[in-house]
Amino acid sequence: MRFSFGLVLFTIPIYLPREEFSNFTVGIIAAAYPVAETIFGPLIGIMADRIGRRVWIYLGLCISTVALFAFTLNRSIGYLVAVHAVQGVAAAMIVVSSLTMVTDVSTTSNRGRDMGIYDFANLGGYVVGIFAAGVLARTHSLVAPFYFASALAAIGAVFAYLRVKESRRIRHAAISPIQTLTLLLRDRHAAAMFPIWLSVTTFIGMALTFGPRFGPSPLLTSFLIAGVVLILAFTQPFFGQLSDRFGRDRLMMLGMLSLIGLFVTVITMLRRSYDLLYVAPFLAIFGVGSFAFAPAALASLGDLAPERGRGMTMGVYSLVISLGTIIGPLLGGYLLDRHGMESLFYAGLVILLAAMGLAVIIAGPGFRNLKPVSTR
User: pTM of the full predicted structure?
Assistant: First the structure.
């Protein structure tokens, strides 16, 4: 799935010529995917709790096969928005159901490691897809990545149908969405995670939408982005295991502080015109440290998910990250058109600091290891 999505993620910004499509227009097209995922994520979560996980993975890959091919048929804005929205629905089916499956088969003692492995699979697929898109865009036409992505999704659908098994039996009725939300949000640490997720995914939405558009060349840009994502992928199981051993909160805080340090370093480099050689150690340390957040936060969410509401819990997670990837492309397109590249990092830093402040207020003083909530 992520291999095919990585191909499209990198290709869309360069598929739309800068002479014909403004950055804000590209942002609108990019945002259609997470808008649809925001709407359908919680609904898919409810259905995954009630009728099972496997069917949605298979169905999502089937829909992706058609949607990815459909990108090649027309370049009108309305058409591309509609197709990308359909792809977002398919993504909601796959992501929510697969995350719920990981939660089903893991325990509180190893969930950080398992979520790290899940992130490794996700990000590893993106790495290969982004790099393959750069090669195909350089050596073939810009529609070649869409054909390849559609074929990959079809292979994934066949594999899911033949090999993926249901992760649990539906022994009891799922608790209602309202009950699930109440159980999650009454825990202040669970509620505090959501504004942080929102801020992180907002900047990710900016970077992934406009990075390919402003890179030196499709091939070199794909190599650079894939290299960063590859490092991210390999660090996820490691940071996940650290969160199992030392606590989720510590690893999440390490990730957030490192991300703030990364933004400050980049802004300083841009304003003072420092040579990259002098700031490279700071970029490396803060960059790798920022990768600690995701596996610890996902494991925390899995710990807190009520057993009969895990699908809905992952649907709420999907909703929050989708909101970030809606805001990111739209805000990024506006800022680029009006104020240039440097404004993206200022906006990211302000949003991140605001989210951390809000999270501290919600969570209250002190940190602790998160405990699973009761379903009673």
Answer: 0.67
